[in-house]
Amino acid sequence: MERLVGERFSPDLIGYGSKIANSATGQLEWMDYFFHLIFPEDKRDSSVWPKTPSDYTSYLPGNDKGGSSTSIVGEVRKFAVLSIGLGLEEGRLEKEVGGLEELLLQMKINYYPKCPQPELALGVEAHTDVSALTFILHNMVPGLQLFYEGNWITAKCVPNSIIMHIGDTVVGFLGQFFASHQRRKSSSSHWQKL
Q1: What is the C-alpha to C-alpha distance for residues 35 and 66, in angstroms, rounded to an integer?
Q2: E strand or H helix at 82, and its extent?
Q3: What is the C-alpha end-to-end distance of the chain, expressed in Å?
Q4: pLDDT greater at residue 3 or residue 93
Q5: Are strands 28-39 and 105-111 parallel, antiparallel or unpaired?
Q6: Rounded CA gap, 138 and 110, in Å?
Q7: What residues pair up with 194 in beta bridges, in sequence order?
Q8: What molecular functions are annotated in GO for this chain (predicted)?
Q9: Is pLDDT at 79 greater than 80 in this prediction?
Q10: pTM of model > 0.85
Q11: Residue 5 predicted with pLDDT over 80
């Protein structure tokens, strides 16, 4: 497996890696992952991207099936609508995340293998995200847990859904509206999760 390149939260953070580390709870964190930058196009390095499926890169903006960078711009413009919905002035969220000039869209794919002793391991320990927004796609395997009112609650797997997590960057200036909730990924001896 290739080593991860760059420093954490850097635009140079690309490549494959594995994490096997002790967590604060004494359980072991255990996962494989792949990080790559999607936007801006001029900072992408597709040389480290998966070769299979063969059409993997064709669905990204700027390629055959992925539309253009203007579709990314359109997505960022949705921050304006979200700003209004939160009772803020239009464009506030876009401004707070640095606008298009500072926008970095990274994709991280996590793989959690079946764990022969799940009581000894977590996929990922409790954390919040430093990003503005995190979108979590799942493969209908339970394991995502949220810390709510002093308890870990397992999130329901809803078909064809996307979970949106508001990250620390947004919470930092919306603290009066939202708190950044911790989440973690549990392990399973029955399922692997992507």
Answers
A1: 19
A2: helix 69-85
A3: 17
A4: 93
A5: antiparallel
A6: 10
A7: none
A8: L-ascorbic acid binding; metal ion binding
A9: no
A10: no
A11: no
Bigger pLDDT: 148 or 166? Answer: 148
Q: What's the token pair of residue 25?
A: 């709870």
Which residues 6+ apart lie within 8 Å of 24 measured at CB? 125, 126
* DSSP conformation letters of 17-71: EEEEEE-TTSPEEEEEEEEEEEESGGG--GGGS---STTGGGGSTTSTTT--HHH
Q: Are 29 and 21 in contact (CB under 8 A)?
A: yes
* CATH architecture of the domain with residue range 15-186: Sandwich (2.60)
Q: Where are the domains of the chain?
A: 15-186
Radius of gyration of the chain (CA): 18
- Angle (CA) 159-51-18 rounded to 5° is 70
- What does the pLDDT look like over 84-116, one tens digit per residue? 877 788 888 878 777 777 777 888 888 888 888
Q: Please state the rounded mean pLDDT for residues 130-143.
A: 82
User: In a 10 Å sphere around its CB, with 0-12 CB exposed, 13-18 middle and 19+ buried, how is residue 85 labelled?
Assistant: exposed
Residues 44 and 32: beta-carbon distance below 8 Å? no
Residue 163 has which token pair? Answer: 């979970």
Q: Any residues with CB less than 8 A from the CB of 107 and at least 6 apart, and which?
A: 35, 36, 37, 38
